[in-house]
Design goal:
- The protein is an alpha+beta fold.
- The protein is built from 7 helices and 8 strands.
Length: about 200
């Protein structure tokens, strides 16, 4: 997976499913400005979701004490991050980081308990995805496998849940909208009708 996209000296755009940094890498502290990242503990070829990072969160504060990233950060949706300079002695930063961690732990509890439909709905709220975005061809949603990992469910169950949600939130197109394409509208207006063949009238 590629690391960063359109990276400048301060900002970086991280495409969905791309890795911002790997565990045990060294690098700067980042601040997430847009999107959602998953932070994973990596064990060989396996990964274990620890928490999600949302806009406003610091990423990689452990660099200030451990000198290496402890978790892998991968984009769940398209993200924008900003490289930040943090004073290791700034108690305000550490207090904010502690509050951030507590809130994200609560989010993970909500995403892992209760009915799957409720867990999926909560994830979509965290990702700030509207019904219109989730009804589109899936371009705004993380892959089903990623959603299933986050909410601790099977891909099949998540697929059924999203299908039912889509049926409720996204009404089927009416016959009027189906036949209101520009081409058919012009045909209707200009009266270019096909005449029946002899003997068929």
């Amino acid at each position: 997976m590629s690391s960063r996209f359109n990276s400048s000296s301060t900002y970086a755009e991280v495409a969905r499913q791309s890795v911002l940094f790997h565990a045990q890498d060294s690098g700067p502290v980042w601040r997430l400005l847009k999107g959602c990242l998953r932070l994973d503990r990596v064990m060989g070829s396996q990964r274990q979701l620890v928490q999600l990072a949302l806009p406003g969160d610091w990423l990689g504060l452990e660099m200030l004490t451990a000198g290496r990233y402890q978790l892998q950060a991968q984009a769940l949706t398209d993200c924008v991050v900003e490289q930040t300079t943090v004073d290791v002695h700034d108690t305000h930063i550490w207090a904010r980081a502690w509050a951030q961690q507590q809130q994200r732990h609560v989010h993970m509890t909500q995403l892992r308990t209760g009915k799957v439909a409720g867990r999926v709905e909560y994830l979509l709220e965290l990702l700030d995805l509207s019904d219109a975005q989730t009804c589109s061809a899936g371009g705004h949603l993380p892959p089903l496998r990623e959603i299933a990992e986050v909410v601790d469910a099977t891909v099949e169950t998540v697929c059924r849940t999203l299908s039912r949600r889509s049926a409720r939130s996204c009404p089927a197109p009416s016959l009027k909208s189906t036949f209101s394409t520009p081409h058919l509208s012009r045909v209707w207006a200009q009266g270019h009708w096909v005449q029946p063949a002899a003997g068929m009238a």
